[in-house]
Amino acid sequence: VTLSPKITSQKDELGKLGQTFNEMIEALREHDEKQKQFVADASHELRTPLTVIESYTSLLRRWGANDPALREEALQAIQAETSRLKGLIQALLRLAELERMEAEISFQPVEAVALMRETAGRLSVAFERDLVVDAADERIVCWGEPEPLKQLFVIVLDNAVKYSRRPVRIRLSRERSEAVIVVKDEGIGIPEADIPHLFERFYRVDKMRHRSSGGTGLGLSIAKQIVERHNGSIRIRSRETRGTEVEIRLPLAEESS
Ligand code: ADP
């Protein structure tokens, strides 16, 4: 059967429409799957510290009065798990807040060097560690939102401090229309196989190894979300036992380029 050119072209149109429709359904299904996975992961992460708290509380009630060593161990565990829960809830709220803000973008010029110096200064006092900020130019002005950018800096600096014992070096410069921020530590580093997964929610390289440092596995996924919101990029290079380098690129405000 030969169809008239008109019918053939209508068939093509219908075919294309059908394909677009299938793609849309597929994207929605994927989104739904991710959402379900996220809720499952979040519940699991929240339940783990609660279970520990619950078990230690019942140990305390049973033997705490007569066993000072057990009492001390239980109280320490309860305190650690409580602060872990607090960290998790804060991170989850931050994620929700970022998603809510998606619609109302309020960008403005942000002095990146000043913001970094302030953030590094604060962490330096809090953790009694050296964070050395080195800027190619004091006036590197990004186009962004001050609060999320500050969160971004805190996440990356906090990791550098958490996973190394040596001074952390931060360098800011510009390249064409971008601010380039490099945070370098000489810490434990990250195995190569883990690097592609670092930005996934709840991903931690070694849960037991990092349990005591109170990581949630949410920091870098929040960092990525903030960077993408700014049309920037974030990359991590690392060698185990040698250290880690995080490179963030953010668009400059016009007055800065
Ligand atoms: P967390 O809250 O556990 O630090 P992140 O999402 O910030 O979660 O980081 C994910 C994982 O990446 C961490 O658990 C840690 O194993 C690894 N990581 C991140 N930054 C560094 C770093 N500077 N040095 C070594 N490992 C790191």
Automatic annotation (TrEMBL):
Its EC number is 2.7.13.3. Residues 41-254 form the Histidine kinase domain. Its main location: membrane. It is found in: Cell membrane. One of its GO terms (cellular component) is plasma membrane. Keywords: ATP-binding, Cell membrane, Kinase, Membrane, Nucleotide-binding, Phosphoprotein, Transferase, Transmembrane, Transmembrane helix, Two-component regulatory system. It comes from the Bacteria. It is a multi-pass membrane protein. GO terms for molecular function: ATP binding; phosphorelay sensor kinase activity. It catalyses: ATP + protein L-histidine = ADP + protein N-phospho-L-histidine. This is histidine kinase. It comes from Paenibacillus validus. The lineage of its organism: Bacteria, Bacillati, Bacillota, Bacilli, Bacillales. The chain holds residues 199 to 455 of 455 of the full protein.
